[in-house]
Amino acid sequence: MNSAVRLVLTAAAICLMVINACGCGKKTNGLKDAPSASLEAPADTELPLDRANEAASTTSIAAADVEPAPPLLGASTLDESSDTTVERSRQALLEALSAQLRQDALQTQTPMRELAMLAAISIIDPQRQVDPRSVEQLNTGDRQVLARLQEFFARISESLASRGGMEQSIEQAASKLAASLHQSPQLKLANAVLCTRVGGFGDYTPFERAVFLAGSPQKVILYLEVENFTSELNQRGEYTTELSQQLAITDERDGSVLWKEQWQNAVDVSRKKRQDYFTVQTLTLPNSLAVGHYQLQVRLRDEQTGQQTQTAIPFEIVDDPKLAVTVK
């Protein structure tokens, strides 16, 4: 049997053992809760968070992507003395298996078995990965499991390609997979403050009172402290944290939205895993706000897990300069 076939079958067997252990084969609820790709009208913020420059190069499960599987090459067509022929045959075999698994996943409401086997192919080719957000049949939990499985098999591929320490690498990858399959702590905004100055984590100067003068372009700094965020190792051995946030201003009386910005994305890369995480954004409150009480709504999303959290910061607009705060 070709070594590539053995690797695929072995990987699939490992993957199915993991699925049975974590109970991922249950019927999904069919929720279409993948993050939307549409953007709302941009806001007038002066210092938006850094945007990610590159999109993840993952494969989307869609009917248009599925093509008839090419016929498997017979043993008689292989010329073992030709590396090019062997590699071409291996790629044809992978294409056939991947196409069939993608097609099978589209034709069932419970596609985790097929997708997990597709994820196992990452042992041979880590580039053959599926974007979990593109599979409408999966709920949020199954999307997270699929992402973790692909990471696991990609790590196995790296350990097989490296020299030495393979057993330790596989053991570490399995431990990370087991830990990630447990319910992760919920993303949390531990602190959200309007400030006049921010020097670093925990180093900030808040407004004495969140009371601002009507008709005056008031600049504020939004300082957020985040807990239970996700940091994943990339291929260069660096820890990557990717968060997005969205701001809106609502009327405290009836909750009507008076101003809203599009999602702002920030990617942090560090050689060491972050223990503390904070974001800073400078914005100018709309000078069209009438006298009254308002809330600055803050929504935060962890792009690696899909978890979201939100909070609200109350503030007031007044017409008496003596009542409004001043920045010295």
Overall geometric form: elongated
Share of helical residues: 25-40%
Radius of gyration: 25 Å
The main pleated sheet reads as: 7 strands, mixed
How many separate structural domains? 2
Structural class: alpha+beta
Termini separation: 77 Å
Count of DSSP helices? 5
Q: Please provide the ordered H/E string of secondary-structure elements.
A: HEHHHHEEEEEEEEEEE
**What does the average pLDDT come to?**
74
Strand content: 25-35%
Low-confidence stretches: 1-9, 15-80
Using DSSP, what is the number of strands? 12
How is this structure best described in words?
The structure is a single chain. The protein has 328 residues and is α+β, with helices and mostly antiparallel strands. It has two domains: 3-39 and 56-181, no CATH class; 188-318, Immunoglobulin-like. It has helices at 3-22, 83-106, 112-120, 140-161, 166-181; strands at residues 45-47, 188-200, 203-206, 211-213, 218-227, 232-233, 239-251, 257-260, 264-270, 277-285, 292-302, 308-318. Helix 2 (83-106) packs antiparallel against helix 3 (112-120) and helix 3 runs parallel beside helix 4. The model is unreliable at 1-9 and 15-80 (pLDDT under 50).
